[in-house]
């Protein structure tokens, strides 16, 4: 029988007193956050002492603008109102910067500034212990996010870290071949950063006269609007359960 999330979290807190351990109830999902200096040693201990022999996924995260959105998600008779004015990070055109965006409409949400902007998150699996764990590390420097590579602990991490470097600009010290994996080698910037223009910096087309691909400033794309994730309560299950209880009470009577 698998160990409960609460019991597993207690073992983690005892082993890593400097790390932050949390349990998401009622699902029992366990997460641990390591300081940058403790990232590699913590991952090594998770592999060797807690039997997390498999790394399922590694991804980068940019928390710039976290908690803000460009839509009014309050329900009305007219549905959801779309945010048409650029309010969030990246909502600007080619050649502009965040300081050159149009004035924000009155009453708009001010984009929060995160205390730590970039992070790496890994999803670990222990087949032998039938346990899963989310491990997180925040970069100390927002201008140059750097943390240790764990590609030698879980070999499949190699391409995951290259992807996070390519898309977020996170540097993984000790990586054997840290170079772009999805964008061109001459690509400028990191497209998953929240301050990267949502329309991009350049567009690509084939020039029949030059007989090659050429890069030009974006002219045919308008900035997009981010759509928030909205979770609505579904009353169907509660209604069905109530009806079932009513039928049982009627049958018993």
**Class computed from helices, strands and strand pairing:** alpha+beta
Strand fraction band? 15-25%
What is the CATH top level name of the largest domain? Alpha Beta
Average pLDDT confidence is 82
**Percent of residues in helices:** 10-25%
- The helix/strand order is HEEHEEEEEEHEEEH
Number of strands: 11
**DSSP summary: helix tally:** 4
Shape verdict: extended
Number of domains: 2
Poorly predicted regions are 98-103
Strand arrangement across the biggest beta sheet: 1-2-7-6-3
Properties at a glance:
about 250 residues; alpha+beta; Beta Polymerase, domain 2; 2 domains; five-stranded mixed beta sheet; two-stranded antiparallel sheet; 4 helices
Structural account:
- By secondary structure, the protein is of the alpha+beta class.
- It has two domains: 1-64 and 114-180, NADH:ubiquinone oxidoreductase Nqo5 subunit (Beta Polymerase, domain 2), CATH 3.30.460.80; 67-111 and 192-253, no CATH class.
- It has four helices and eleven strands, in the order αββαββββββαβββα.
- The strands form four sheets. It has a five-stranded mixed sheet with strand order 1-2-7-6-3. Strands 4-5 form a two-stranded antiparallel ribbon.
């Amino acid at each position: 029988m698998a160990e409960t999330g609460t019991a597993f979290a207690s073992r983690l807190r005892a082993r890593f007193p400097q790390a932050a351990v949390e349990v998401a109830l009622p699902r029992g999902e366990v997460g641990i956050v390591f300081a940058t200096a403790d990232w590699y040693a913590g991952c090594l201990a998770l592999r060797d002492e807690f039997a997390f022999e498999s790394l399922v996924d590694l991804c980068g995260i940019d928390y710039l603008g976290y908690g803000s959105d460009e839509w009014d998600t309050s329900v009305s008779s007219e549905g959801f109102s779309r945010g048409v004015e650029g309010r969030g990070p990246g909502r600007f055109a080619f050649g502009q910067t965040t300081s050159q965006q149009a004035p924000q409409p009155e009453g708009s949400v001010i984009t929060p500034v995160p205390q730590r902007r970039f992070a790496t998150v890994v999803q670990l699996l222990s087949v032998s212990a039938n346990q899963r764990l989310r491990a997180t590390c925040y970069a100390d420097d927002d201008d140059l996010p750097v943390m240790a590579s764990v590609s030698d602990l879980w070999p499949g991490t190699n391409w995951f870290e290259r992807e996070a470097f390519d898309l977020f600009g996170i540097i993984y010290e000790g990586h054997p071949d840290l170079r772009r994996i999805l964008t061109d080698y001459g690509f400028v910037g990191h497209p998953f950063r929240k301050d990267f223009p949502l329309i991009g910096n350049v567009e690509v087309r084939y020039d029949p006269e030059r007989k090659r691909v050429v890069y030009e400033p974006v002219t045919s794309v308008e900035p997009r609007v981010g759509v928030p994730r909205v979770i609505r309560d579904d009353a169907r299950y509660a209604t069905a359960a109530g009806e079932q209880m009513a039928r049982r009470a009627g049958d018993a009577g």
